[in-house]
Design a protein that fits this description.
Length: 602
């Protein structure tokens, strides 16, 4: 079946000639231009395409750590194959020749997005709605130049998939016009293919369907693995062997968890690299796609008032706090073999820490930023058991309603010691941050849903006004709060004089409240990340060496907890968490900013 809008490419050859000499296969680094405003160079343009190229020397800025795994180098013999067995990568001698092919919105190219695990929770809740939002915002290629395929074992027709997806789509508050029309147009681009995750044959069938939609254009393919991690490799193997693009890029978004410790994570990376090169792998951490996490670097590096303060000289402690006001409802089975440290701290909170604490990158390009982040992660002091507190929520009755405890979940063993709460004190052993506690706290079934970064500054030396603060100088210190969610805001607590003839001081907030400042709805993190993956922008995705460093920090601690079966402190559902977290903070002379009386006034 050929779609009516299809036509053969004009201009640049769709399938360029293959180079004879192929000493080394090197993944190209990527940047994107449109949304980040970087200068477009021909090599960058080629890099953005995500094409593989054969070249004797690694491109500038591409570190060996992100090249094919040394033990499992990607060679022409084990590189992904097209259906007919030929290597799927395009091989070019000249970067410039790729420019015409690199623009995925180019008339001659298509983008196909296959959501593997399309019947699942994440696909329905996040991925399809994010794709629709991108479509609505005109961020996806023109109508007939993109196709979305759902892939899963469940039997479904295209119409059934569309019906399922349609229930999850919404238009932004500020973009209501033509909403149902847009939805209909979008749904027409959605198709479904039922298949097993380990069947090359079924992926060959998918490939055929994809080709029908792509026609003879350059086909760029993105696979989103929205499936349990135990089947990641089956899918990558089948997709890369049987459904890779033969003339465009093939990229794979991998969802967390990326293993459960250093060993399993390394095994997963090795497995992925049997079929893909690092540049094709987009390890998603959706916290990096959140608006205020994105804004962290802007805040710091584009405002003179912040950057000079960003060190041990002025910052007393940093707190990165995640709390949810619901339990593991429905995900207890998954959660019990991971726990809150793996689910939230080792990835989301640690990524925020790395972004917060990194040195100024050479540029805004992905590799420069990721190089700086990895340096922070590698500089971290090994985590000590005594610097971590764990908790688990128990049943609680409030206002006549009984909230279940974690172990009341039928999929959780009754004697489970899996933490649903953890607080930790971390340190970065470098000149900038020596001795500054970075306190992290993450918990489920707490009193509120909130994620924030709190930066508590030092006391003002020889403060002329200290008499006005009483004995509690902490009440007078400046605190910068970056509220990631909900109700995004950045505010700075300052001291000021209460207007009048007397001299009384007050604490106030200089407040950038997003809802008041911007009328536009903030895009969901998945929108940004999907668009980045389509554009080949890797800045917000986790590189394998970052992942290794993150696991190296947490693995010994997790092992110790599990070997010793350390019992978590129980806390009631809907409470503020275990008191142990206060003792931990107090050990470093810190008070949790989210629990201070003042916080509730703010
Ligand atoms: N849900 C969420 O909020 C988040 C999820 N993630 C990660 O995203 C991925 C997808 O999550 P989610 O959608 O919740 O997962 P689901 O459990 O809903 O699984 C997705 C799909 O995978 C298939 N599947 C489920 N279990 C198995 C199995 N044991 N063997 C083979 N196939 C199976 C099912 O499709 P079918 O039976 O039709 O083949 C299912 O619809 C996971 O890696 C998860 O850790 C990450 C962050 C948040
Ligand atoms: O990755 C995960 O994140 C969610 C929280 O994400 P948010 O964007 O809603 O804050 C968490 O509930 C889940 O346990 C975890 O796997």
């Amino acid at each position: 079946m050929a779609l009516s809008c299809m036509r053969c490419p004009t201009g640049a050859a769709a399938v360029p000639a293959r180079s004879a000499a192929a000493p080394q296969l090197v993944p190209a680094a990527a940047v994107s231009f449109a949304r980040y405003g970087f200068g477009k160079s021909s090599s960058a343009a080629a890099a953005a395409s995500g094409f593989w190229r054969i070249h004797a020397v690694a491109p500038q800025g591409v570190k060996s750590s992100m090249d094919a795994d040394e033990k499992n180098p990607v060679t022409p013999s084990n590189s992904p194959k097209a259906e007919n067995g030929s290597p799927s990568e395009i091989v070019l001698d000249e970067f410039d020749d790729l420019t015409a092919l690199s623009d995925s919105t180019n008339d001659d190219s298509t983008v196909s997005i296959t959501v593997v695990g399309a019947s699942g929770d994440l696909a329905k809740k996040k991925i399809f709605p994010a794709l629709f939002a991108l479509y609505y915002e005109d961020c996806l290629p023109k109508a007939c130049h993109f196709t979305i395929f759902g892939y899963a074992r469940s039997k479904m027709t295209d119409a059934e998939l569309r019906n399922m997806v349609s229930k999850t789509l919404t238009c932004r508050i500020d973009k209501r016009e033509n909403c149902s029309e847009k939805m209909e147009e979008f749904l027409k681009r959605c198709f479904y293919h039922s298949g097993q995750y380990d069947s090359e044959e079924h992926f060959i069938d998918l490939d055929k369907k994809l080709k029908q939609h792509e026609g003879c254009r350059v086909s760029n393919r993105l696979f989103y693995l929205s499936i349990p991690p135990n089947i990641f490799l089956d899918v990558v193997k089948c997709a890369s062997k049987s459904a890779s693009s033969v003339n465009g890029w093939t990229r794979v978004i991998v969802e967390k968890p990326f293993g459960r410790d250093s060993e399993s994570s390394a095994a997963l990376t090795r497995g992925l690299k049997q079929y893909l090169v690092e540049d094709q792998i987009f390890r998603i951490d959706h916290y990096l796609g959140k608006e205020l996490v994105e804004n962290l670097s802007v805040l710091r590096f584009s405002n003179l008032v912040f950057e000079p303060l960003w060190s041990r000289q002025y910052i007393r402690n940093v707190q990165i706090i995640f709390s949810e006001d619901f339990g593991t409802e429905g995900r207890g089975g998954y959660f019990d073999s991971y726990g809150i440290i793996r689910d939230i701290m080792q990835n989301h909170l640690l990524q925020i820490l790395a972004l917060f604490a990194m040195e100024t990158p050479i540029s805004l390009e992905a590799e420069d930023i990721r190089n700086e982040k990895v340096k922070v992660l590698r500089s971290m002091k090994p985590l000590q058991l005594e610097d971590v507190v764990i908790g688990q929520y128990k049943s609680h009755t409030k206002g006549g309603t009984t909230y279940p405890g974690y172990t009341d979940d039928k999929t959780v063993p009754k004697d489970s010691v899996t933490p649903t709460f953890a607080a930790a004190a971390l340190f970065i052993n470098n000149a900038r941050w020596d001795g500054v506690p970075f306190l992290m706290k993450a918990g489920k079934a707490l009193h509120t849903r909130r994620t924030e970064i709190r930066v508590q500054f030092r006391h003002v030396p020889g403060n002329l006004y200290k008499g006005s603060f009483g004995t509690d100088l902490d009440r007078a210190t400046n605190e910068l709060v970056i509220r990631v969610q909900p109700d995004e805001a950045i505010y700075l607590k300052i001291n000021n004089k209460i207007p009048g003839l007397g001299m009384r001081l007050d604490r106030s907030n200089l407040n950038l409240h997003y809802a008041a400042r911007y009328s536009k709805e903030i895009p969901d993190a998945y929108e940004r990340l999907l668009l980045d993956a389509i554009e080949g922008e890797r800045r917000l995705f986790i590189r394998s060496d970052e992942l290794d460093a993150a696991w190296s920090l947490f693995t010994p601690l997790l092992k110790e907890f599990e070997d010793k079966r350390i019992a978590p402190e129980l806390y009631p559902y809907g409470s503020r968490g275990p008191v142990g977290a206060h003792y931990l903070a107090a050990k470093y002379n810190v008070r949790w900013g989210d629990l201070s009386a003042e916080h509730y006034k703010a």
